[in-house]
Each structure stands twice: as structure tokens, then as C-alpha cells.
Amino acid sequence: MPGDGPMHRGLLLSVAIIATILLVSGSTTNAHKPITSKYMYHQDVYPIFLAQCGGCHAPGAVAPMSLLSYGDAYPWAQSIKEELVNLTMPPWQPEDGFGRFKHGGSLTAQQLDIVVEWANGGTPEGVPVDHPVANVKPSWPLGEPTAIFEMPEIFTLTADVHEATRYFVIPSGFERETLIRAVDFRPGAPAIVRSAILFVDTSNKAAVYDAADPNPGFGVEDVSEFDTEQILAAWLPGQEAIALDGAAYAVPADADLVLRVTYKKTWTYEGLAVEDRSAVALYVATRDVPKVETMTLQSPSRLNTGNDQVVTFTTDLARDVDLLAILPNLATDALAVQIEALTRDGRRTPIVRLASPRPQWRTRYWLEEPLTLARGTTLEVQAIFKSDQTDGNLPVRFTLDLVSTPPVNVAKIGQAPVERNP
Ligand code: HEC
User: Fold this and answer.
1) d(CA 404, CA 306)
2) Is a pLDDT exceeding 50 seen at residue 28?
3) For position 302, what pLDDT does the model report?
4) Mind listing the pLDDT tens digit for each residue in 348-361?
5) What whole-number distance in Å separates Cα of residue 374 and Cα of residue 372?
6) Cα(371)–Cα(208) distance, rounded to whole angstroms?
7) 263 near 275, Cβ under 8 Å?
8) For residue 361, how far is its CA from the centre of ligand 1 (angstroms)?
9) Which of 40, 277, 301, 328 is 20 to 30 A removed from 110 (C-alpha atoms)?
10) Residue-level pLDDT at 309
11) What is the mean pLDDT of residues 73-100?
12) Distance of alpha carbon 331 from alpha carbon 117, whole angstroms
């Protein structure tokens, strides 16, 4: 039935909160408004920008403007309000309070309220504060890596090119299967590196493409082709690497590591050639730990959303598992998706809910703590599509990282998805 799922209730609630905020605060864009906001930039707004936006909206970083100084930030107040209320910035965060994640969620209702009131109430500066310089971190916060691999060559995003996705092949040189407990990434040109994904290729396919392309790395039309093997890391600007504790990704002997980098220039760099030579750092597990297994939650190939635009499908767990992380791969057009676990005693445990999925900001969501799910638990995925998408092929896919007890062949963990919607 339309409208009675927990997803619907959650979404309606969010919309209600936003509507209230807009109603209470008005939405005029007059720049010379009297100051009515009790919230000040330095005292109230800056800490939110630093924590939630600073990884990208800092000088020289990937976003078009810094939000870390008053002078840079306040002219953007109306635009900031819109991005936040539309849930488009920060890009593609898990909903606050629906599952708990290591990288944190989207803004809390209170943070949203502070920024919106500040934007509507004359953007007061408050008492100026010399904030400590942000982003001064060691280049490898997890400590000395076991191995650092640079891109084999410099890649240049030429003056006439605005954006590009390139794949760079890095032979691992591993003589035997190697257990990786963490992967970190360092952009060579932080201003243009939007995202990076590191995956494993044992097929030699990537090396063949690379050899055929005269420029450093290669580009392919159909990216799905390279998504089938283990993804070791999905990095976004400002996001710290997560080290696994008690589990590790297994990289087969002689495998190639393939680094997919997405480049995009903001207007600051338009018309300029920018060189990049990014690097990945690997941390090898020093003790024998279980291997991370993956499990795919995949929608039936052709979704029929009917009239209510909500699609539900489920997968039952055939083993006890500890869920570690979730990596979505979604159609651009979904409005929102969520995963819940339905235990045998009828309880629902929220796992993740994502609003306005944007493939360009695809990343892995690490659970704050591993979530133990017993055999027989049902994983239920719900997706809401826009009202004009009453049919069509809109795949919804999640890759779950987990360890299972006892460890099994990956393919056997989940059963075929069952579509619930008629
Ligand atoms: C992961 C990187 C990232 C994070 C985190 C992020 N942004 Fe952005 N933001 C961008 C990029 C890149 C753009 C440029 C538009 C684009 O290409 O998507 C942008 C654009 C914007 C714009 C629109 C600028 C325009 O051209 O109109 C606003 C406003 C904005 N961000 C505000 C925020 C706020 C506020 C936060 C934190 C609450 C935030 N962003 C967090 C990367 C980020």
C-alpha cells in the first residue's frame, strides 16, 4: 500500500521539518536585511561548515568556494540554504539517525536550523575568531603505509577539457594473496580530483585497455564492466580512510589494482591545464584475520514501480553475518533508498537511508560498529522513484561488506532477491 511504509513516514517527516523551517524563517533573498539571527558565523555556523563542508569547501579544494572564512562564505548564504534544504549538500550523506556511520551523517535538524536562520537573518558575522588553519593533517593519518603506489604517470586535464574519468592500472606485484586492512588515497591535484575508487582486477582487462590508449591510463564508456571485482576503497574529498579491525580485504597474487579517478574543474580552473599524480597507500594486515566477503542486494532486473513509485525487494541471510559497510550503486533518478533488517522476532533495524542519490559522489558507508545479523534475517530494500517514472529499468544495487560465521563461499550468502511489489 502506498504511503504506509516506514520509508514514507520518514520522508514525509523530513519534508514537514523543511516546510516548517521555510515557513518560520521566510525565504526572501534581500541582501540588506536587518540582522535578526541569533546565530553568528564564527560562533555557531563556522563549526558546522568546518565539520560538514570543510573537506571540499576550503581554499584550493575541490569545491568552487571556501566556506571557512566569513568573507568567502556569507555571499553564498542563500545558495547554501537551498542546497541544505534540498539535501544536495553535503553530497549524498546518509540520513541522520537512521543507522550510525563512521563518517557521520547529514546535518542534524538543529544544525540545519542554525544555518538556515543565519542565512535568513542577515548572516551576522559575530565576534571574529582566528580559527586554527583547517586541513593541516599528516599526509597519511593512519600512520606509515606498508606500500605507497603512485599513478604510473602524470595525467593532465588539458585546458580545453572540463571533466574526465580515467582508469590507471597499478600492478600490485603481490607474490601471494595479501590481506589489506586499510587503503588511503592522496589526490595529486586536490582542486580537480572529485572522487577515486580503487578496485582489484584479476582479468587483465584493464591492462589491455591501458596498452591500447596512447595517453596515461584509459577511459571507457561502460564503467559497469569494472565494477564486478572487489572494491578496496571509494574515496571522496575530506573523507578519512577507515582501517578494518579484525577483518581484511584479500587481494589475489599478481592482481592489478585499478584506480578510477574522476576529475572536474570548477570555474576557478576553467581554461587551465592541471596535472595530477595521485597516490594510494595500502596497509597490510599483520595478523591472520577473516577475509571480508561481499554480498549484493540487487533489484529485479526490470522494476515495475506501479503507481506508488515505491519498490521493495528482499534478501534472506543464509548465515550469521557481521555487516561492516555498504556501497551503493544506484540509478540517478531514485529519490531515496533505504535498507532495513527484519529480524525473525519482527523487529526492524535501520541500516541506511539515502536521499537524492548522486552517482558522482558514490562512496562506501562504514557502520559505526559492525552489525550482527542472524541467519534468517531479511534485508529489505525500499526505493522511491519520481512520479514520472512509472516503469523502466532502474537498477538498485548495494554491495555489502561483511564477515560471516562460519566463513563461506561469497555467492552462497544471500538468496535471490524477492520482489515484493506487484
Ligand atoms: C565532498 C565534497 C563536498 C562537500 C562535503 C560539500 N560540498 Fe558543496 N560543493 C561541492 C562541489 C564540488 C560543488 C560544485 C558543484 C558541483 O559540481 O557539484 C559544491 C557546490 C556547493 C554549492 C553551490 C555553489 C554554486 O555554484 O551555486 C553550495 C551552496 C554548497 N556546495 C554548499 C555546501 C555546504 C553548506 C556544505 C556542508 C554542509 C557542502 N557544500 C559540502 C563539494 C562539496
Assistant:
1) 36
2) no
3) 57
4) 999 999 988 887 88
5) 7
6) 40
7) no
8) 11
9) 328
10) 76
11) 91
12) 34
Domains present along the chain, CATH in parentheses: 6-120 (no CATH), 147-284 (2.60.120.230), 293-419 (2.60.120.230)
Distance CA 152, CA 278 (A): 9
Q: What is the pLDDT of residue 224?
A: 60
End-to-end CA distance of the chain: 10
Q: Which atom of ligand 1 is nearest to the CA of 361?
A: 1
Closest residue by Cα to atom 18, ligand 1, is: 63
Q: How much of the chain, in percent, has pLDDT values that exceed 70?
A: 81
Q: What gap in Å lies between CA 84 and CA 93, rounded to an integer?
A: 11
Cα 350 to ligand 1 centre (Å)? 28
Atom nearest to 194 CA in ligand 1? 12
Query: What does the pLDDT look like over 259-314, one tens digit per residue?
Result: 999 999 998 899 999 999 999 999 999 888 999 999 999 887 655 555 567 888 99
For residue 35, the one-letter residue type is: I
**Distance, CA of 417 to CA of 398 (rounded, Å):** 12
Closest-CA residue, ligand 1 atom 29, reads 80
Distance from residue 299's CA to the centre of ligand 1 (Å): 30
What's the farthest any 2 CA atoms get from each other in the chain? 68
Q: At what angle do helices 6-25 and 109-120 cross, to 10 degrees?
A: 30
54 CA distance to ligand 1 middle (Å): 10
C-alpha cell at 84: 541544505
Q: What is the mean pLDDT of the chain?
A: 85
pLDDT tens-digit series, residues 186-223: 999 999 999 999 999 999 999 999 999 999 999 987 66
Q: Hey, which residues does 274 pair with through a beta bridge?
A: 157
Pairwise CA distance, residues 161 & 156, whole Å: 10
For residue 114, count CB atoms less than 10 angstroms from its CB and return exposed for 0-12, middle for 13-18, buried for 19 or more: buried
How many Å apart are CA 371 and CA 369, to the nearest integer? Answer: 6
